[in-house]
From TrEMBL:
Lineage of the organism: Bacteria, Pseudomonadati, Pseudomonadota, Alphaproteobacteria, Acetobacterales
Organism this protein belongs to: Komagataeibacter rhaeticus
GO molecular function, one term: porin activity
Family assignment from sequence similarity: Belongs to the OprB family.
Composition bias type Gly residues, residue spans: 93-110
Gene Ontology BP terms: carbohydrate transport
Pfam families: OprB
One cellular component term from this protein's GO annotations in UniProt: membrane
UniProt-listed PANTHER family: PORIN B
Chain spans, region Disordered: 18-55, 93-112
Basic and acidic residues bias spans: 36-55
Record-given protein name: Carbohydrate porin
């Protein structure tokens, strides 16, 4: 059983590789971001085409617009693929939460919200187009709309949906990838979204809570959340796969996609109203609203990951006679950011930053944080199938776990864990559906807790969230996903808009749809 590469000689996407190694037991659509939705849809289409023996023929049954009056097959013949992914969601919070600061803190903290994303993508296979083997060019854009229920009403560490984003129309990714050594080595350079390849748990990608995609710690600790949806950064990524069991990846990227140094981390937000920093803590549309800022002035994010595949599955399961065993993928990795980060405990004079926030007019107070050089995080991920009735069965049970850890003086989150269990093909005739139950916890850092104590605020602790979800393929081109989440102690017990009580526990209901045009 050899390495699994595409028939064109190009290395597979990370999602395609993991899906093959896990015996196609992963969710039909990976809900980390629209790029993962696109790649997982393509991976499923490739599996179905190979099973039908039409690997060189474009199957457009999974597209709402079909072959677009013959345009899609003609473009595909010349190495050009054009996709449009559409994601729409409605959410409602039934209890807890906080009133919205966007309408003068009116309302109760409950009520409905809508968010949506449209992502067109153009991909070019250079071998088919002009004979350069192993080359792949990709460009995509985003149009995001609606409002974030998490930002308006929930006050939690991570949004209940990974698709919530500031409203904008922007360039997303723009990169070129070249493979070498028969596909065992490939290099990607250009504007990239790292959460399509790094820090991914394939089973966790079923869930809609943002923590199950790009984890809680980098989302709130890095500048603007780092080079992850809906932001991308100039980067170079190297991937080497010497065998079917081992994969090594490394990337060096701009660490600050929007280019906003001030008030782009939570501690700067906490002191920014007095010290004059920019008022937008999300930073997604500041300076880089159209996605072409290409900031290179803050620092570099260096990230690496080592993967080991246990019992990797054959590419074609239909002819397997010997059981290859239950598959699993194990990952270890970490990152280092060379930039300076605001300290949560000390100001630039060595005094207490929290105490200074209580009495900013004092001559001894200074609300400018001390700047600490460098930031790091380590992580481990497990995706393991634990049961299937037979080697050719679509039904299976898989479990996942992921843990992250980092320093506590310059970060809001110091420790986070998420885990869960998935049942693929839960009902007869529903081979592409998945039912899942996931849980996660995030711990406020020691620096954040000390800032709370010194400022006389509620001391933040752990936030827990539980998610029950069902991903159903309604048609070949549409997936619907009803979802329920419960959040205990949002942001570890942060105060609501009144400052007099903590934000209440939240019961959130959602309906998510993904359409491929």
């Amino acid at each position: 059983m050899g390495l699994i590469f595409s028939t064109s000689g190009m290395a597979q996407t990370q999602i395609e590789e993991d899906r093959a190694r896990l015996g196609n037991s992963t969710p039909l659509i990976q809900q980390i971001d629209p790029a993962n939705v696109r790649d997982s849809e393509r991976a499923q289409a490739d599996v179905e085409e190979k099973a039908a023996g039409d690997g060189d023929k474009l199957d457009t049954s999974g597209n709402l617009l079909g072959n677009m009056w013959g345009a899609r097959p003609w473009l595909y013949k010349h190495g050009i693929t054009f996709d449009i992914q559409e994601v729409d969601e409605v959410w409602g919070n039934g209890t807890g939460g906080s009133a919205s600061g966007n309408d003068g803190a009116g309302g109760s903290g409950t009520g409905p919200a809508y968010d949506g994303v449209t992502m067109p993508t153009l991909t070019i296979d250079t071998e088919k187009l002009f004979g350069l083997k192993g080359g792949l060019f990709n460009v995509s854009a985003l149009q995001t709309r609606g409002r974030s229920i998490s930002q308006d009403h929930l006050a939690n560490f991570n949004p209940v949906s990974g698709f919530e984003a500031d409203r904008s129309t922007r360039l997303f990714e723009l990169w070129y990838q070249q493979s070498f050594l028969k596909g065992t080595l490939d290099v990607k350079i250009g504007q990239q979204d790292l959460d399509t390849e790094f820090l991914i748990s394939d089973y966790a990608s079923l869930y809609l809570n943002a923590n199950f995609g790009w984890p809680m710690a980098p989302s709130v600790n890095l500048y603007g959340g780092g080079p992850s949806w809906p932001l991308a950064s100039p980067a170079i990524r190297i991937r080497y796969r010497p065998s079917e069991k081992f994969t090594f990846m490394f990337a060096a990227a701009d660490d600050n996609p929007p280019g906003n140094r001030y008030n782009s981390t939570p501690i700067q937000q906490a002191t920014g109203s007095v010290s004059g920093y920019n008022s937008d803590p999300t930073s997604q549309t500041y300076d880089g609203a159209n996605g072409t800022n290409f900031n290179m002035g803050t620092g570099a994010l260096l990230i690496t990951e080592l993967q080991y595949a246990l019992n990797p599955q054959p590419a074609d399961m239909s002819n397997v006679t010997k059981n290859p065993g239950l598959p699993g993928v194990y990952k270890l990795g970490g990152y280092y950011d060379t930039a300076k980060f605001a300290d949560y405990r000390y100001n630039r004079n060595g005094g207490s930053l929290g105490a200074a926030s209580v009495n900013p007019d004092s001559t001894e107070s200074d609300l400018t944080p001390r700047w600490d050089r460098g930031n790091w995080m380590v992580y481990g991920i497990i995706d393991q199938m634990i049961w299937r009735p037979s080697i050719r069965s679509a039904r299976s049970v898989g479990i996942f776990a992921r843990a992250t850890g980092n320093s506590g003086d310059r970060n809001m989150i110091s420790f986070a864990v998420d885990a869960g269990i998935n049942l693929k093909a839960p009902f007869r005739g529903r081979d592409n559906d998945t039912l899942g139950l996931g849980w996660g916890i995030g711990r406020a850092s020691s620096g954040q807790r000390q800032f709370d104590r010194d400022s006389g605020s509620y001391v933040q602790g752990n936030e827990n969230h539980l998610e029950l979800t069902y991903q159903a393929q309604v048609t070949p081109w549409m997936v619907m996903q009803p979802d329920f989440q419960y959040i205990w102690h949002p942001s570890g017990g942060v105060a609501d808009w009144t400052g007099l009580r903590r934000v209440g526990n939240e019961a959130v209901f959602g309906l998510h749809s993904s359409i491929t045009f």
